[in-house]
């Protein structure tokens, strides 16, 4: 099956700094990728849909200026958490759809201290 | 609007026992339904999906689920639990076959006792 990777797998940053998370489709091209957020022991919440070559579509309640998404190529989407705060600490998961199936990355655990 | 309810945030079974994880959905259009499994600190892996073909869907690792429109349910079952089945399971609904724009249930943590 298709493989989606994320980097880094874990990141710790200080409050007020920005952190970038990469999502790559390794063996296929993805015009659309999705970013989810998962709080401990909770379900996944869709944050935004990342579209190659155009602006991302954000879900209601997600601050687009805080969670910057860039999808500059068909194999890479990035999520930048700007001016991170402890409440941004979470598990961030990306996914991409190919052949009518959504493939998920392994996730990135962000801890803001 | 679509929503998914998973009854029971935690389910515990003995090894070899039947696994039953419940999922009920709400959808204004014919739904496409999915079950995913998540192991600790990992992404989600698709177990199976219902796409309006057969109502009984067989997936990987011996799991299957039955779509019951009258009950708006898509419960996940496995005849005999293995220790390796211990994980978090998510039911999800979409309004399209491609699995885009998934709405997830709250998840059920399956624990398997030896």
- Overall strand count of chain A: 11
Mean pLDDT of chain B: 92
Number of strands of chain B: 12
* SSE order of chain A: EEEEEEEEEEE
- Return the average pLDDT of chain A rounded to an integer: 92
Largest interface: A-B, 25 and 22 residues
Radius of gyration of chain A: 13 Å
Helix content of chain B: under 10%
Low-confidence stretches of chain B: none
Structural class call of chain B reads: mainly beta
Structure class of chain A: mainly beta
Q: Low-confidence spans of chain A: pLDDT under 50, at least 5 residues? A: none
Please give the largest β-sheet of chain B.
Answer: 6 strands, mixed
From the N-terminal CA to the C-terminal CA of chain B, the straight-line distance is: 41 Å
Beta-strand fraction estimate of chain A: over 45%
**Overall form of chain B:** globular
Coarse morphology of chain A = globular
| Biggest beta sheet summary of chain A | 7 strands, mixed
Question: What this model shows, in words?
Answer:
The complex is a heterodimer of chains A (113) and B (114). With 113 residues, chain A is an all-beta fold. Helices cover 0% and strands 56% of the residues of chain A. Chain A contains no helices and 11 strands. Chain A has strands spanning 4-7, 10-13, 19-25, 32-38, 44-51, 57-58, 67-73, 76-81, 90-98, 101-104, 108-112. In chain A, strands 2, 4, 5, 6, 9, 10 and 11 form a 7-stranded mixed sheet that branches. Chain A is globular, with a radius of gyration of 13 Å. Chain A starts with a strand and ends with a strand. The model of chain A has no long low-confidence stretch (mean pLDDT 92). In chain B, a hairpin with a 5-residue loop joins strand 7 and strand 8. In chain B, the strands form 3 sheets. In chain B, strands 2, 5, 6, 10, 11 and 12 form a 6-stranded mixed sheet that branches. Chain B has a 4-stranded antiparallel sheet with strand order 3-9-8-7, with no helix packed on it. In chain B, strands 1-4 form a two-stranded antiparallel sheet. Chain B is globular. Chain B is mostly beta strands and 114 residues long. Chain B has strands at residues 3-5, 10-14, 19-21, 24-26, 32-38, 44-50, 56-58, 64-68, 73-78, 87-94, 103-104, 108-113.
